[in-house]
Amino acid sequence: MNRHAVFLALMAGLVAIAPLGGCARSALDTTGFAVVNNTTVDAPFEQTWQATKGVLREHEWDIYTRDKRGVFVAYSGKGRRALVLSKRTKHTITLDALSERQTRVTVETVDQVYGTTLLTYPGWHDRKTRDDSKALDLLEWVKAATAAPAA
What we know:
This protein is α+β, with helices and mostly antiparallel strands. The chain has three helices and six strands.
């Protein structure tokens, strides 16, 4: 056999087995990955919104977006696992005015890792949340901030 035939046979073999090992993988179904916690605070919507923004800044969470209609997206716990895999926790905080003096605060928590799948470019991907203690702490901090008398 000549060199070209051997080379082509090896390349064909590599192309045939490449999909079997695969470094990349298809996207996971993330339905049900989030943990949702909520509480009701005895404060008007605007005061609760300001208190939530203040609490997020005070505890140095990264505020990705905030909306005067009552939605915050903030990240906590940025870091690396095993020196390679970046991870963080995404918190979507929603404020709903129940009345003039009461607001419901809902926190949806999702763990995320940075990586690539077959269907996406590199980016953050949702993973099942194992610990929602930060969300519970956030709810307590907001309750405390809205209960404190305005200075």
